[in-house]
Amino acid sequence: MSRLIVVSNRVAPITEGEPTAGGLAAGVMDALRQKGGRWFGWSGNVVPDMVTPPLPVVEQRSGPISLYTTDLNQRDYDAYYKGFSNATLWPVFHYQTDLAHFDWAEFEGYRRVNRHFADSLQALMAPQDVVWVHDYHLLCLAEALRAQGARNRIGLFLHIPFPAPAVLMNIPAHAELMAAMCHYDLIGFQTESDRLAFADYVLREMGGEALPGGVLAVGGHAIRTGVYPIGVHVDMLRQEAAAAADSAQVQALRASLGGRALIMSVDRLDYSKGLPQRFTAYERFLADNPGWHRKVEFTQIAVPSRSDVHAYQEIRRELEGEAGRINGRFAELDWTPLRYLNRSFARRDLMPLYAAAQVGLVTPLRDGMNLVAKEFVAAQDPADPGVLVLSRFAGAARELDAALLINPHDEAGTAAALERALSMRLEERRERHAAMMAVMRHNSLERWRDRFECDLRNPASLEHGASAA
Ligand code: ADP
Ligand code: G6P
User: Fold this and answer.
1) Whose CA is nearest to atom 12 of ligand 2?
2) Recorded GO terms, molecular function (predicted)?
3) Does domain 234-442 have CATH number 1.20.1070.10?
4) Are 389 and 395 in contact (CB under 8 A)?
């Protein structure tokens, strides 16, 4: 029997109902819950440096999922997670090279942790198993597994954007990184433009050759590439939204709104999400539309993330100042135009909040997909749905083109889209919502998982173009 072994840095808490941190963990957990499998990753704990690898692997079971986790020591955490993953790869892959720094010692630490992961995995893998690796923390994992002699089929799905070669080349170790990535059998991307950016580098900088079916031949390897937009469980999310529509939390929200329209945003507190631009676009909307004063409120839920990385501390400080300034400018004794909450909600509590909103405002500067956009749409009542205002730079915009698409750098354009969304007639709202639901039902989470797993197990299915997105 060939099992599926999933590997990612972040794993979801195994107890149901607990908040999951970000799109990867939420998506993988939902995908595995149905079919089961082994999932290996970081426990989230950091131990002192005197504890040296190999660190023990702890097993937990929840239904069909076996979760295996390991700690990181401080030195590895600093170089691999806080350093190269989140202060080099994350900003560069999101085109924010101004926020990136690079240090060869951190890159070496990143490779070291990829090797530790490979060491631990050896004990969990049989030769016939297939290995599905997730995201930018583990770009060098296939190389490390191959160095240990693993001949399994190994695939990588990148949840975040892949940058154009000129941007990638800001990372001094770009050649080492790309050579390592070429040890994967299959690499999946969220959008075709991410896939093309990767292919562009392989063809131009590595002398690779493009073969039919998304296959790239380079240095004696054949890497298959494909586009697999991650989805959500549409019906499950709608049920969660409807089931808690009258919860104490939603009633409290309704009472506090007193009939005002609600604009809602939910994000990890990350500079890629475009929060300062979103706040100023809302300010512009208020300035341009005095008729909406007292009739609307904007609630931003932003859960702190990667708080020990410098750029994240800066953005948090900036937003606190901005929220205070905007409220100071427009608030009345009985009206707070912007509510800013730094906390997380369990997803089943979040869904009815989305459903209570007239507008979902999702405006990242860059985003691999953005699951919040899809969750917002899925949570709406089809008979009287809210409107999604979505950045064209989110991967989700490729599928959700029935949203009001905006450029987050265009303050006036975003402000105008807010006005349009708040005033939109029922018929148009229904039409747009139905169009988005149809795409989301087609590109479901099950389809994402099944297509990737099928292409990883059967290389021929990609060669014959059987699973084009
Ligand atoms: P990213 O993966 O970059 O965080 P996504 O929008 O793709 O962005 O995924 C975010 C996931 O995390 C979604 O499933 C969303 O519901 C969840 N999430 C984001 N912010 C919060 C929050 N403040 N509270 C609870 N869940 C959140
Ligand atoms: C994004 C990334 C994930 C990451 C998540 C939360 O979704 O694509 O890989 O797990 O953010 O970030 P964190 O650093 O807390 O794992």
Assistant:
1) 22
2) alpha,alpha-trehalose-phosphate synthase (UDP-forming) activity
3) no
4) no
